[in-house]
């Protein structure tokens, strides 16, 4: 499964639980996560989607570290199983 298919499925699953998953584009800030996931319970998390088995790039790792050290949740998702775990965790299931 390619990255775009994983990303599309993530968006569908987030919308299924009542959330939004807009693409995050931040000019001048290379490496920001692919998606902001805005959940109905007032929580926002950051998600980087990758092709299966692909690691985060150095700038993506830097952003993940910056977000988590400030108390935000950051996820790297590269499989359908990751999506299922993510949805279960953020929806309390």
Automatic annotation (TrEMBL):
<keyword id="KW-0378">Hydrolase</keyword>
<dbReference type="GO" id="GO:0003676">
    <property type="term" value="F:nucleic acid binding"/>
</dbReference>
<feature type="domain" description="VRR-NUC">
    <location>
        <begin position="1"/>
        <end position="81"/>
    </location>
</feature>
<dbReference type="GO" id="GO:0016788">
    <property type="term" value="F:hydrolase activity, acting on ester bonds"/>
</dbReference>
<dbReference type="InterPro" id="IPR014883">
    <property type="entry name" value="VRR_NUC"/>
</dbReference>
<dbReference type="GO" id="GO:0004518">
    <property type="term" value="F:nuclease activity"/>
</dbReference>
<keyword id="KW-0540">Nuclease</keyword>
<protein>
    <submittedName>
        <fullName>VRR-NUC domain-containing protein</fullName>
    </submittedName>
</protein>
<dbReference type="InterPro" id="IPR011856">
    <property type="entry name" value="tRNA_endonuc-like_dom_sf"/>
</dbReference>
């Amino acid at each position: 499964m390619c990255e775009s298919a994983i990303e599309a499925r993530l968006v569908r699953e987030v919308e299924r639980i009542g959330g939004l998953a807009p693409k995050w584009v931040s000019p001048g800030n290379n490496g920001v996560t692919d998606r902001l996931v805005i959940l109905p319970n007032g929580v926002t998390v950051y998600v980087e989607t990758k092709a299966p088995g692909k690691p985060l790039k150095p700038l993506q790792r830097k952003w993940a570290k910056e977000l988590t050290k400030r108390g935000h949740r950051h996820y790297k998702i590269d499989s359908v199983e990751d999506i299922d775990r993510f949805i279960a965790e953020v929806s309390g299931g």
